[in-house]
């Protein structure tokens, strides 16, 4: 360290820092230690000497809230001690101490903010009590009469009365902003600094995971959502750096090995904590990214994570899917969670009943077409989500319901959900479903855990009603269909919503439907060659056909050929058994022959692949050798470049000297040339220049003077030429006079042509407008017959929306009034409690003050008695002291008359005065 051209020994630096702290110069102490830590000479110091200095540096930097200096100092300390195991252990302890100090300062700031808030509350309570006292006094005065109004005095200001009615929330927020928020930011920067220091080192990974877990807790405790996002991105970047292949040119000390099971398990636990924190903060996008991180690490891990972690993982996944509205994978996640819960030895019966019920109702809430793969994008998405749940294939509604209705699940399932499963799956009747399920749906509405499934269940119920009705009826009244789909409570839908859901079902290929608004009839189309079936795959259509009550004509035509082929194949097998067996033998032999042929082909392919791998390995070795040679060549090149740079500097110095010499020679040549130019100008007689005056002139000015003289002469010549040119202007005027008649004729012809072209364009525009008008009239006449139906439909929709708005407004106003009454009652109760507490506190304070006064009086009496006793004992031991006191009393009273008494008093005063 350079400070006054001397290097401080670690002990001296520590002593110097403590001395500066003792005299109150903490900033100077921090700067002194910082300069010491950033010096290169500390690299040779012992860890035991550096650690106390660094700890003091941490405490000072944290107290002064100088995070930038602390960060730089910690990085320098890491460089100094990272080469030994003792140094790395010390680094972890220093980082831990840094976080502890930051958390301590934050706690201290919270205490100060709490004290400030309590003081504000006490002041508000006192103001409220004073205001109440004023009101009580005013009431008493009114009862007694108005005669004594002038004698009444209030010891309270209007500000105190206003203060009693103001909440202390603003004061608390202001205290937090001033005291707590700066330390929150400092603690967050402390976590970032420590994570950056401890990252990507296998011997520091325990501390790294520990700090990351505490950072997650910090974000959850103080709801720091932005900081949590940045923390996740930072940890993700660290993991990506670890996963990358290290560069051979830059060897990393103690690199992280994800192949190590313990290391991978630590990182996996850290990502589980990240996922839990994201769910608690309701950052669902960040939670899904955390799920992907967890899944990536789980695929790398050779051993299965702990069951408790997996249960938390599936529970968080279920919440994410529930928020995103993906009911299919929400039910799959619930199924995974409950299967692990059954294996847990500490699971209670209530937990099993709760999660078994959630698994069944989530499976029932899955739509029939939830697992349909419409295109490649949806197929990849479903497979990706299935892989997050460790599923080999995409789950379906039937498979989820089959697992949810197993004996292990139904054993713990709620009876209400068993009844729902029976009426919805086992014995579904669209005509009587609304009546049969009324009590069940009411129970689901009132149950707190099932409220989130109201909308998905409603979609499933309405879809099943549409599907069942479409198989039985060809045409049906809209009012009758609305009646079938109208349920009670939160499951109730308006006619407009039911019609909208019917159109959605048609767009999803659940039904093929046509709505006649004039007659109020819904027609379920059954054209055998309808194009609606072309939008689905063969497998999904076959499943729908097998699950249907009866085949529609379109499905019958579509599957007729496949059913005929199956029947003919079975008939052939029954008619000619021998031929079938011979054909089977031939097919078997052919399959064996093809398998043998493919075996040799696969063997050749494996050998070729092995050769390709060997070739790649050789190429990689050659490439590595080339990179090594390239690195050595670059080192030699750098050495040559440094030598070349030194040589160039010497050459530049030589060139500079040469240029200086040339500059002096050029100036001498210019001076000589100037003299020659003056002589030449004077000899030509253009201008006359005195050589003595020309000493202040350079060559350029001389040339300018010569050019100005020449320009002056040229202007005089041009003036003479203009006079000659004016004489030729009459020729130009004659030519233009002749051209004028020709130009007027050409202008008239052009005007006539423009008028003709304008008339033609105008006629075309008029004709086009006429045709468009006639076309618009035809469209108006064709659509005129639909106006009444449209107005009727719009009126119904508007009335429903207005009724719904009115109901919601009444409900909202009622809730607002109830909330107001609750807030008013709470405020009154709160103020009464605060007033009573204040009265009680004042009584206790008064009693405590009385006790203190009594105790003080008793203590004073005892002290006086003790003093008198001490004086009596002193007087008994020293008789002259008694005489001295008696003489002093006589002197004060003026009764000291004897000369002998005065001399005795003077003598004793000299003795006892000192």
UniProtKB/TrEMBL annotation:
The PCI domain extends over 353-529
According to its UniProt record, where is this protein located? Cytoplasm
- Please give the InterPro entries that the UniProt record associates with this protein: EIF3A, eIF3a_PCI_TPR-like, PCI_dom
| The keyword Isomerase is assigned to this record | no
> Where are the compositionally biased (Basic and acidic residues) regions?
644-658
Q: Where in this chain does the entry annotate a coiled-coil region?
A: 707-751
Protein's name in the database: PCI domain-containing protein
């Amino acid at each position: 360290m350079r400070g006054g051209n001397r290097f401080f020994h670690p002990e001296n630096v520590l002593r110097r820092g403590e001395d500066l702290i003792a005299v109150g110069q903490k900033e100077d102490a921090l700067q002194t230690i910082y300069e010491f830590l950033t010096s290169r000479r500390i690299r040779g110091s012992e860890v035991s000497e550096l650690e106390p200095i660094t700890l003091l540096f941490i405490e000072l930097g944290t107290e002064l809230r100088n995070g930038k200096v602390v960060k730089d100092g910690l990085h320098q300390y890491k460089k100094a001690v990272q080469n030994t195991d003792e140094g790395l252990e010390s680094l972890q302890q220093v980082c831990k101490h840094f976080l502890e100090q930051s958390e301590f300062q934050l706690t201290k700031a919270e205490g100060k903010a709490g004290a400030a808030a309590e003081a504000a509350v006490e002041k508000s309570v006192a103001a409220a009590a004073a205001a109440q006292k004023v009101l009580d006094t005013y009431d008493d005065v009114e009862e007694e009469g108005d005669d004594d109004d002038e004698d009444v005095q209030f010891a309270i200001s209007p500000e105190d009365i206003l203060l009693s009615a103001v909440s202390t929330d603003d004061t608390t927020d202001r205290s937090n902003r001033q005291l707590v928020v700066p330390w929150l930011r400092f603690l967050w920067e402390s976590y970032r600094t420590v994570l950056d220091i401890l990252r990507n080192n296998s011997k520091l990974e325990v501390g790294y995971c520990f700090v990351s877990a505490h950072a997650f807790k910090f974000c959850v405790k103080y709801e720091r959502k932005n900081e949590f996002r940045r923390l996740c991105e930072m940890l993700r970047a660290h993991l990506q750096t670890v996963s990358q292949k290290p560069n051979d040119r830059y060897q990393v000390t103690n690199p992280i090995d994800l192949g190590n099971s313990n290391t991978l398990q630590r990182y996996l636990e850290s990502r589980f904590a990240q996922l839990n924190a994201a769910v608690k903060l309701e950052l669902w996008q960040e939670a899904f990214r955390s799920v992907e991180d967890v899944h990536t690490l789980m695929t790398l891990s050779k051993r299965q994570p702990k069951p408790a972690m997996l249960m938390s993982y599936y529970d968080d996944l279920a919440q994410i899917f529930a928020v995103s509205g993906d009911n299919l994978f929400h039910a799959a996640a619930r199924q995974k969670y409950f299967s692990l819960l059954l294996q847990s030895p500490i699971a209670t019966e209530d937990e099993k009943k709760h999660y078994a019920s959630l698994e069944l109702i989530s499976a029932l809430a899955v739509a029939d077409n939830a697992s349909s793969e419409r295109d490649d994008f949806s197929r990849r998405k479903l497979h990706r989500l299935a892989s997050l749940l460790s599923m080999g294939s995409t789950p379906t509604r039937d498979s989820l319901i089959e697992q949810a209705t197993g004996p292990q699940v139904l054993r713990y399932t709620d009876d209400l959900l068993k009844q729902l499963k029976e009426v919805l799956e086992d014995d579904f009747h669209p005509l009587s479903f609304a009546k049969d399920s009324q009590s069940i749906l009411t129970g689901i509405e009132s149950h707190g855990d099932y409220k989130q499934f109201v909308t998905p269940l409603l979609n499933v119920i309405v879809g099943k009603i549409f599907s069942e009705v479409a198989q039985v009826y060809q045409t049906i009244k809209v009012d009758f269909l609305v009646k079938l789909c109208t349920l009670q409570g939160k499951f109730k839908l308006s006619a407009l919503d039911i019609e909208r859901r019917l159109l959605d079902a048609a767009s999803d290929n659940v039904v093929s439907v046509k709505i006649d608004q004039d007659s109020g009839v819904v027609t379920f189309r059954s054209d055998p060659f309808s194009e609606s079936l072309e939008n689905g795959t063969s497998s999904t259509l076959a499943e729908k056909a097998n699950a249907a009550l009866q085949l529609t004509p379109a499905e019958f035509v579509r599957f007729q050929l496949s059913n005929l082929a199956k029947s003919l194949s079975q008939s052939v097998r029954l008619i000619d058994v021998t031929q079938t067996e011979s054909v089977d033998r031939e097919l078997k032999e052919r399959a064996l022959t093809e398998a043998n042929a493919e075996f040799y082909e696969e063997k050749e392919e494996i050998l070729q692949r092995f050769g390709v791998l060997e070739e790649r390995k050789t190429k990689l070795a050659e490439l590595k050798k080339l990179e090594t040679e390239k690195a050595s060549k670059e080192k030699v090149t750098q050495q040559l470049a440094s030598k070349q740079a030194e040589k160039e500097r010497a050459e530049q110095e030589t060139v500079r000297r040469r240029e200086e010499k040339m500059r002096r020679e050029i100036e001498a040549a210019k001076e000589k040339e100037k003299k020659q130019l003056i002589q030449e100008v004077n000899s030509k007689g253009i201008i006359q220049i005195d050589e003595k005056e020309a000493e202040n002139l350079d060559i350029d000015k001389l040339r300018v003077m010569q050019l100005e003289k020449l320009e002056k002469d040229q202007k005089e010549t041009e003036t003479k030429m203009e006079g000659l040119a004016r004489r030729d202007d009459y020729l130009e005027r004659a030519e233009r006079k002749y051209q004028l008649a020709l130009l007027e004729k050409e202008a008239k012809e052009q005007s006539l042509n423009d008028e003709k072209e304008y008339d033609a364009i105008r006629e075309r525009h008029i004709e086009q407008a006429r045709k468009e008008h006639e076309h618009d009239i035809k469209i108006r006449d064709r659509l005129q017959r639909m106006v009444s139906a449209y107005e009727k439909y719009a009126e119904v929709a508007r009335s429903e929306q207005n009724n719904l708005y009115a109901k919601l407004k009444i409900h909202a106003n009622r809730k607002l009034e109830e909330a107001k009454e609750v807030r008013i009652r709470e405020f009154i109760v709160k103020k009464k409690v605060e007033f009573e507490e204040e009265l009680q506190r004042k009584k206790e304070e008064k009693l405590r003050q009385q006790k203190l006064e009594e105790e003080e009086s008793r203590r004073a009496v005892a002290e006086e008695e003790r003093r008198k006793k001490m004086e009596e004992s002193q007087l008994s031991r020293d008789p002259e002291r008694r005489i001295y006191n008696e003489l002093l009393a006589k002197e004060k009273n003026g009764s000291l008359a004897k000369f002998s008494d005065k001399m005795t008093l003077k003598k004793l005063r000299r003795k006892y005065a000192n």
